[in-house]
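Teaching assistant's notes for section 4

Start the section by putting this record on the projector. Ask students to predict, before seeing the second block, whether TerD domain-containing protein will look compact or extended. Collect guesses on the board.
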Amino acid sequence: MAAKVLQPGDDYVVTGEVGSQILFGADWKSKEGFEDTLELSVVTVEYEGGFKDCVWPGNVATDDLYTTESQVASLRHMNGDPSFPKDEKEQIAVNLTDLSNDAQAVIFIVGCTVQSDMSAPESVDIVLRNAKHDPKLSFAVPANCRQPGVRSIIAAVLYRTGEFPNWEGWQLRSLMQPYEKPSWCEIMVQAKQAVKFAVPGLTIADISEAESMCILRTSEDRTLADICKSRGLEYKAPEKPPKPEGEEEAEEEAEEEPVVGGLRTLRIDVGWVVPPKPPKKEKKKKKKKKDEDSDEEEEEEEEEEAPLEFEFNVGLFQEGGENVAMVGAGGSENGVTFKGDDKEVDEEAEAQKAIRFTITDQIEISLAEVPSEVKSMVLFAGNYNQLKWTQLSGLYARVIDADTGTQLALFSYDTRQPEEVFEQKTGIMMLKLYREFEDTNYHPWQMSRGNIELTPEQLETLKRQRNVVPMGDESDFETQEEWEKALKLEWRIRGLSLLTFGETSEEGQAAAGAVAVYDGKRNAEGKREDKHCRVFYPNGDCYIGEYRDSQRCGSGVYMFKYGSTFYGEFKDGHLLKGTMVNADKGIYVGDWLEDKMHGKGTYTYPDGERYEGDWEAGQKSGNGKYFYLDGSVLDGEWSLGQPHGVCNYNETTTYRATGVYDAGIPTGPWNFQTKKTGLKQMGSYKYEKPEQEDEEIPVPKPGHPNYLGLSWVGDGTATCGASLF
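Reveal the predicted structure now:
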């Protein structure tokens, strides 16, 4: 049966043709070089207007996952379920008969993943169907939903008609309303406003910003400033500048002036959810072994599965991954405090949150007290008793402004993984909180999927941003310049979702250190694999570009600690072809082998002179030309970085010469010819290095008659005629 196409605003009465279980699906064709870009979510709203539940890739089923009789989730993300056909790349199943009777509206939302918007796919197909695929409803996607900057669409709403509790039936309306924010959790206000016609009990009081927040997907990061702005909060660095030199210290009795406004303290609530156990089956009985003839029976004892437990830690790291501290349960250090059993949880407030879970620990981070040497903080959880991950239906970390209680961001681990993914894995890296310059070029470049052809100005900006942490003593700033530099730093937060090995929190700390220095995606094996990643190395170097199989491979920019920068192509972790800009402004463009200049290339010296030709193992070797500032050119054979063999020299205005170099020194017979008259002279050079000359001399030009210890021994003959060159 052909699909029925619904235009925006069209209504459709859902009858028995669709059935009690429907599938919300999407299929799309990605542009070349782009990964899959879309994800689906389904939100339910109560008849009185309150938020009910949501399913999305980070929350694969509802809180009341199982009903007593059917053992089927009312909302469930179906990716990876072989029992459902894969006509679409992503599907969510909605079991209408299992939905709570107080749920009146089901909202279907299409969002974008990291580094994409709705203009990225070449085509998008959004459908609704029953489990048997017949009939199929297809939603027309208007042009305004495919514009650059559109990152989510409220596709449709399925709602109950009649009055609670005696509903009459279901009706569907196509909406196709575009929004700039990427996920369902950030457009909760708009979603409720969009479906107000379907939920008469929904009032303005039910439309609250408190239900919305930023969802942190794997490898996605956001600035705290942007998150705060979207939540109506002010973001302001809490540190204070140092007092001007010569100003007397205030008396100890004087109260310190408080910092007004801005985000000062974060609270991270962590916890997990396990699916409810299915109803207990009737216990089997067996005869007692002691008396074969006895009819007495005893209940067979069932072994209870040990509960899943996680140990949470926060690792603090310097830029190159060096560990500053690790704070765990009950600890307090460097501005990070685990509240432990002393936490106070407002159960009523928790019940109103979009994603609900049992809070097992709370972590407070005072941003002002984090030492200036700390570049990043990594939150990781260890399942060190190695219990089955299949017990886990959700692992969460919610970031909150501790001063106002406002939700900022939520991390949710995607548990839709094959069981073999979890084998022998005991830990998971959840979040990374880090700081860097607010005007960094990396993030705009990453989001635009840009190439590595950088302008000199961009290179200088990247180099300046290398030292992203002020060099003060702890949180003290010794100079006004350091303070002004600190003001240009901003905190960012990144979702990780990386499973790791290890049997102790110390081993987890080592894994966290590796995470702290890497911003990018990983493959199924946990290896670094991303076209637009960033890595900080222990030696102070930094790389931005492509990684494959945990090696630099493809296009990238490598910035050395002491100022040199390479941008070009890499292979198997080594430089292959590209441009090296040295700290002294010398520039090489050409081929490389094992991180040395090798093959064809051009090196331009800081003073403007340059060499074009062959290179071997980092030195000029083979045929090449050396161009002097005065316009003269030395063309010939080179070895070990020096002219060696037959060379031709073309002076700018006066003469030409040909002869032999030996390890960079003109030697033996040479022929000269003046350009103006054509006069030729033949002779030879004899070299006597001056005693006081200890330093290496620049590439010598064959001069006439003498040059730096070279003595010209001519034969006294001069002829006119054709050029010897």
